[in-house]
């Protein structure tokens, strides 16, 4: 499995609902609602940008030995965005 692959993100964002088929049987059905392709691509792009910004912050600290608050703010904003998308889609 590739890191940040479309299939992995699609499974992460798939909403699953458990429904009883009939009250007389013990059969349980799982209904899956797949996310849109645009949402999957947006989350994939956001995760790649998050990795790139984290690498920039690490290089900035190693080379200049100074913390860059602007890059860190962008990283935390993207983390909040991805977390919000995942929690919002699962609910």
Question: TL;DR?
Answer:
The protein is of the alpha+beta class and 91 residues long.
Task: Explain the overall architecture.
- The protein is of the alpha+beta class.
- It has one domain (6-90).
- The chain contains three helices and two strands.
- A two-stranded antiparallel sheet has the order 1-2.
- Strand 1 and strand 2 (28-33) form a beta hairpin.
- The longest helix has 28 residues, at 37-64.
- The relative contact order is 0.15.
Question: How would the blueprint of this fold be written?
Answer:
Blueprint: H1 6-13, E1 15-20, E2 28-33, H2 37-64, H3 69-90
Antiparallel strand pairs: 1-2
Helix pairs in contact: 1-2, 2-3
The total of helices stands at 3
Main sheet strand line-up: 1-2
Average pLDDT for all residues: 86
In what range is the share of β-strand residues?
A: 5-15%
Structural classification: alpha+beta
Q: Give the helix level as a range of percent.
A: 55-70%
- Compressed to H and E, one letter per element, the order equals HEEHH
Q: Rg, please?
A: 19 Å
Given the C-alpha coordinates, what overall shape results?
elongated
Uncertain segments of ≥5 residues (pLDDT<50)? none
Total strands: the figure is 2
Distance between the termini: 26 Å
Main β-sheet: number of strands, strand sense, barrel status? 2 strands, antiparallel
- How many discrete structural domains? 1
